[in-house]
């Protein structure tokens, strides 16, 4: 079925809004990289981090009323994340839960303000794949919904995840941040996360695919 002129305008407007949000939060290079992806070229430098509660101080939330809570989100919470903007649907979130992953989030007055995912079995990113030990976890897909950005929720939620995972016996925590994702790197540095290595993923027209370690910090 063909889209109407109104629908096309709405889609263009939504796309433009997403681009402007990324520009607003210092992710200009990410926007440009995604444009290059459209022609079949992906060149993605990224950092592998190790994180944990040691040497971290709990960050303060700014500009948000006290009526909020942080904890593990349940199956019934997935429906609250429709049109969340993270690139995944509630149905995909349910699949993550069924696969044994957990979602930790911040709720504010019945709404999901921010969330992140925890994989207990493997760290998988591009061509990098690590099987995790019983004391390890992979933290991924940290996302703050637009109305709640600028309130320091990401570092606060990350710290709360450290506490929850520490109680579960998971004291070695890994994460990935794209090299040009300045906001993600900034909040991890606030929590004294440590870079393990800088790597580069290259995919040329789905014919050449490689992953290289550019620098090791250990």
What tags apply to this protein structure?
single chain; 218 residues; alpha+beta; Aminopeptidase; 2 domains; 8-stranded mixed sheet; two-stranded antiparallel sheet; 5 helices; 10 strands
What is the 3D shape? Answer: globular
For the record, what is the CATH homologous superfamily label of the largest domain? Gcn5-related N-acetyltransferase (GNAT)
Helix content: 25-40%
How would you spell out the order of helices and strands? HHEEHEEEEEHEHEE
Query: What name does the CATH topology of the largest domain carry?
Result: Aminopeptidase
User: How many helix segments?
Assistant: 5
| Count of individual domains | 2
* Structural classification: alpha+beta
Query: Strands of the biggest beta sheet: in what spatial order?
Result: 2-3-4-7-8-1-9-10
User: Any idea of the CATH class of the largest domain?
Assistant: Alpha Beta
Q: Please state the average pLDDT score.
A: 86
Provide the low-confidence segments as ranges.
none
Secondary-structure arrangement, i.e. CATH architecture of the largest domain: 3-Layer(aba) Sandwich
Q: What is the total tally of β strands?
A: 10
Gyration radius from CA atoms, angstroms: 18 Å
Question: Which range does the strand content fall in?
Answer: 35-45%
First CA to last CA: what distance?
55 Å
